Structures are given as C-alpha cells and as structure tokens.
Amino acid sequence: MIEKRATQRHRVFKGGTVTFEGSGVACTVRNISDRGAAIDLETPGLLPPSFTLSISCDNFVRHCRAVWRNGRRVGLAFVQ
C-alpha cells in the first residue's frame, strides 16, 4: 500500500466525542496526526459533512470533515 499522507499518523486508542447539531456521539480515536485522524463509530452513516472531534483526556478539540469511510472507520481531515 502506498502512503499518501503528508504527515505521519500515530497509533492511539482513546475515547473521543464527535459533536454536531447540538448532540454528541462517542467514538474511538485509532490514529492521529497534525492534519487528521481515523475514528471508529457505531453508526458512521449519521455523520454530517463537518463536525467537531474532542478528546477530553488531552484537552483536544478540532473541527473536522470526513474524507473516507470503510465500515465503522472514518478518516478525518482537520479544518484549518
């Protein structure tokens, strides 16, 4: 597989929250970099085009957009 990412992602296993339209959905953050992340969601089909990812244990909050989906896993790009 050819790596297309501009920055290397680091494997993690952290609980996170995706928030949109006034509600929050729990997720598991599987990897992360300065530009994006991959998360697992129980119901990825409900994810809107843009949303916020929070990882409370790290005081981490980023606005995101989904760039790919594969089953329960969703690839995110952080919006600058």
TrEMBL record:
Domain PilZ stretches: 3-79
Listed InterPro entries: PilZ_domain
Transmembrane segments: none
Listed GO MF terms: cyclic-di-GMP binding
Extent of the signal sequence: none
Protein name: Pilus assembly protein PilZ
Protein's organism: Bradyrhizobium manausense
